[in-house]
Design goal:
This is Anti-sigma factor (TIGR02949 family). The chain is an all-alpha fold. The chain has helices spanning 11-16, 18-22, 28-40, 42-62, 69-84.
């Protein structure tokens, strides 16, 4: 996704770290670069707005449920695999481990 214009911060970098931006889990200097990018790039701004809306909806609907620690770890591990471009297993991350 890109508007086709050159930016100081590349669209792929912004999209790869969008959740870190949404969750305020990045240094202020990087947040400033992302904010600048959103003012210049409407496709990335649109993606940001969509992800922000989904995040708010999930929080409103599911924000009071406790997530089991092991499920959280499995989901975060799977997200790391996806972000790194590695193959992701097709099994359900919430399922109990299969016995050999």
């Amino acid at each position: 996704m890109s508007c086709g214009e050159p930016h100081e911060t590349d669209c792929s970098e912004v999209l790869d770290h969008l959740y870190e931006f949404l969750d305020s889990e990045m240094p202020d200097v990087d947040r400033a670069k992302f904010k600048q990018h959103f003012t210049e790039c409407s496709p990335c701004l649109e993606k940001y707005g969509l992800e922000e809306a989904v995040k708010k909806l999930v929080k409103r609907c599911c924000g009071h449920d406790d997530v089991p620690t092991d499920l959280r770890a499995k989901v975060l591990g799977r997200l790391d695999l996806i972000r790194s471009g590695q193959a992701v297993p097709d099994h359900d991350v919430a399922a109990a481990p299969q016995e050999s």
